[in-house]
Amino acid sequence: MSPTRTTTQPGTQVPAEAVAPLMRGIAVLRRLTDADGSLTLSDLERATGLARSTVDRVILTLARTGYVRLDGRTVTLAPRLMELGNAYLSSIRIPGLLGDRVDALADELDESVSLAVPDGGDIRFVHQATRRRAMSLSFRIGDLLPAERTAPGALFATLWGPAQWQAWRERRVSDPEGAGFPSLPPRPGPADDLFEERVDAARADGWALDDQLIEPGLLALAVPVRDPAGGIACVLSVVSHTSRHSAQGLRDGLLPRLRDAAAAMESRLRDAPPGGSEPAPGRLASWTSASKQELGREFVESLARGLTVITAFGDTGAALTLSAVARATGLSRASARRALITLEHLGYVVADERDHRLTPRVLALGYPPLSRITLPRIAEPHLAALAGLIHESTSLAVLVDDSVQYVARAATHRIMNVNITVGTRFPAYATSLGRVLLADLPATGLGPLLDHAELRPLAPHTLTRRAELEAALERVRAEGYALVDEELEAGLRSIAVPVRDRAGTAVASINVAMHSSSRTIGECLEQVLPRLRLTADSIESELHTAARFTHVAVA
Ligand code: PHB
Questions:
Q1: The dihedral sign for the CA sequence 168, 171, 173, 177
Q2: Contacts of 83 (CB under 8 A, 6+ apart)
Q3: Which of 214, 225, 234, 245 is the best mutation target for the ligand 1 pocket, counting ligand atoms within 8 Å of the beta carbon and taking the most?
Q4: Averaged over 7-18, what is the pLDDT?
Q5: Which domains does the chain have, with CATH numbers?
Q6: Is the CB–ligand 1 distance for residue 136 below 6 Å?
Q7: Which is the closest atom of ligand 1 to the Cα of 125?
Q8: Closest residue (by CA) to atom 2 of ligand 1?
Q9: pLDDT for 331-354, tens place per residue?
Q10: Which residues form the HTH iclR-type domain (predicted)?
Q11: pTM above 0.90, yes or no
C-alpha cells in the first residue's frame, strides 16, 4: 500500500488544542481511501501504526456514523461518507453551477471532459463526464494528480509565486516515485523536467496540453475557467487518446470549442447569485451524545463531532466563522474551535482571519472509490440485513423494456426460487417488483408498453386482462407497494416497494419473496411491509448522498 502523503503540513507542529481522536479517524479514512475502499482490521492496524483497540474504537465510531461497514474483519467505506466530499463540492459551487455544461460538452465532443481545481501544488478533479473507452484509464472525482504531469497543473502553476515553486520542488525531491498519488500509474519514462517551460507556454497561450505525461496514449487539452475576480476558478479539460487524435489534431480541432465552453461557464459564474447564506441552526451534534450514552467508551465522540464540523459547510457556498460552525453543528464554541484547529492543521480547512473554508483535500476522505458505486452495491448490505431479519429472500430489480431484471439479491437457505440469480428477467406485469415500476411510469410510457405486452397466464392467479392490471397498478400508486400472489409461479407470494432517486422517480424496486404457506397476506402486510419500507428508506438515503454529485448506475 502506498503511504499517504502530507496528512499534516510539513514542518508544522501538532497544535496543543488538536483533537487526537479526530486525527486518528481521519488517518483511518485516508488509508481506506488509498486502498480503494476496503482493508482488514489488521491491515489498518499496520498501515496506521495505531493499537488494535484504538482501531476497533475508531471503526465502531465510524460505523455508527454510517461512514464505514464492518463485515467480519473487513472494513469498507460506505456511501454515507460521501457527505463530507459533498459538503466541499457544494461549498465551492463549481460542480453545481457548471456540471451540466461539462456533461453537455462531453456529449457534443464524444470525449471525456473534466473539471479540476488546485490542491496545493497538485490538482484534484471535482467533476468527471467520462466516456468509457477500452484503451484509456479515467480518473474519478477526488483523484489527486501531480501538477507537472497534467494539463490543468501547468495552467494553475502560471499563478504560483516563489513559495509555491519551492514547495513543488521539495515535493519532487521527497516523493520522486509519486507514492502520494495512488491513482497515478507508474511513470512511463524518465522524470520529466520540462514543467517550467510548459508553464511559460501555458501563460503565453492560455491553454495547456498533456501529451502522454500520465501514460502512453493519453492526451488532454485544458483551458482555464476564470472566476469573476480574474483568478482561475477551475480548469476544463477534454481527454482523448492517440488512437483518435494526434496532439496537434486535438488542439486544432477542439481548442475553439473548449474555449467557447469555458466562456459560457465564466458567464455562469458571473451571473450566479452570491452564496453566503448561513447554514440553518442544526443539532447535528446531539445524536453523538446519544450514541455516547448508548455505546459508552467504545464510541469516540470527539471523532464523530469533528467530522460533523465538515458537514456544516455544505449548502452555504460560503466561508464560515467559528460561531457559524458552532451554531450549525450544535457544538460548543470550544469543541467547534478545537475541531477547526485540527482540520486546519491537517489541511482540510483553511482559515483567513475569522473565515474558514473547506479545501479539496476533503475529497481524499473516501470520494474516489465511492464515486463509482452502483445501486446494486449500495443495496446489497441492506438486502442482506433484511433477509437475515425475516428469513426470506430479498431482491433489487430494474425495469428493462417490459421485464424486470434482478440486479442484486440476498437469498436465504430455503429451497424456493433457487433459480433466481442476478441477471434473471421476468415479465414485469406478473411480478411485484415489476408492478411497482410500471405503476411509476408516466402514462406516455406505460400505455405503449401495455399495448405491446402479451399478458400470458403464467400461474394460477396471473392477471391477464389489461383493465385488471391497470386497476392493480392504480392500487399500487395509492398504497405505495405491490403484493403479488401466485401470478408468476404457484405457491409464490411477493411484496415490493419502490426505490426512488433524488427527483422522486422509482429507479428500482426491492421485494421479499416467500412461499405462500410461510405467511398469510395479513402477516405479510403487518410484518414484512414495514421492514421492507425501512430497507428502501436506507437504500434511498445512501443513494441520494452518493448521487448528489456523481452518476450512480442502477445496474
Ligand atoms: C482527466 O480528466 O482525466 C485528465 C485531465 C487532464 C489531464 C489528464 C487527465 O492532463
A1: negative
A2: 311, 314, 545
A3: 214
A4: 75
A5: 20-80+296-304+319-324+332-370 (1.10.10.10), 94-271 (3.30.450.40), 375-546 (3.30.450.40)
A6: no
A7: 2
A8: 114
A9: 999 999 999 999 999 999 999 999
A10: 19-79, 300-367
A11: yes
